[in-house]
Amino acid sequence: MDEPMESIDPETTNTSNEAGENDRKIPLLRPGSMVMMTLTLEDYESKFWPKLQGAIDQLLNMQPGAYIPISYEQMYSCVYKCVCKQFSERLYSDLISHITKHVQSLSCQLQTSVDDAKEFVECFSYLMHQYLQALSGIVPIFNYLNRFYVQSKLKKELNEELRKLFREHTVDHHISYLLSLMEAACDTPFAISPPTMASLIKNLYSLNPVSDKGVHIDEERPVGVSIKAKCKVCSFMWLTLIPLFPSFGH
Is 33 left (phi over 0), alpha (psi -120 to 50) or beta? Predict the structure, then answer.
């Protein structure tokens, strides 16, 4: 599918009786319509992308459960204009590059707390929850890019691609250590708080879910040290914790 072209006002001029059969109806362009708007590379780099980048950063650094007054309508409009003006590839590249740098920084942040098991687990849980929360705001902003470029041309899904970035650059580097701490915590009640443990299991599963047959849905590249390889530990913790929180997951 080609990238969407700007819509043109359906109103047309009327032909007169003297014009004859060869006259054609000419669309009327209203001032300010997308058809009349031009978007140069300089405009994209100095106005459109910085505005979107600012919104992305706010969402990525937002405290879980907090609210940031972002104009989603304005951000969606920026994406719409970029896609309509043939900047889809550049916009997608910039988005992926920016998110990649962020998740790499999260991995470095986790590395600083590996000497304290409890702090590491809590930090990992917090950062993962924060990132997934941010995606719930970022993906809708780039919905138009997803529909007319990521899905139609790349045959992918933006939400899944952004989740993969977190798996590849953050989870894969720490999952073995994390799951070993979670397994050890099973022998020491409340070594890790039940809410933190439950959140970890839920979010880890959502990042790399397993089908009913026990096979990773992401067949092309499972999480580095496969969560499936630790499925007995995760299953035990999951079945143990969920009954303690009847409202969890609803």
Answer: beta
